[in-house]
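Morning F.,

Quick status update on the modeling queue. The single chain you submitted on Monday has been processed. Sequence for confirmation:
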Amino acid sequence: MANTKRQLFLKRRLRVRNKLRKVNSGKMRLSVHRSNKNISVQLIDDVAGRTVAAASSLEPSLGVVGKNNVEAAAKVGSAIAERAKKAGVDEAYFDRGGFLFHGRVKALADAAREGGLKI
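Structure tokens below.
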């Protein structure tokens, strides 16, 4: 029986996350979620089980609401880098989930790196 697109996505997400957890224990996780219209990111402390910082293209303060493009993702990336610094985090590992490291996901990661967050 053939796997559906959703099943393949879930398998890919678990595969990526499990590999990252083996290699990067002790660091915070920068988890990305991309929808067709928006992109959001969370800085998660897996040990304590809580979200330290978050940013989304749905926030009116970023000025990208309704924009579905690479520039909006870059603004979200720079916002999460700024909020991570404010929370005292300077290093994290990038959890792209089941999304390919291309386009908006890549733009977000690059902007977070330029903002001073080590990924």
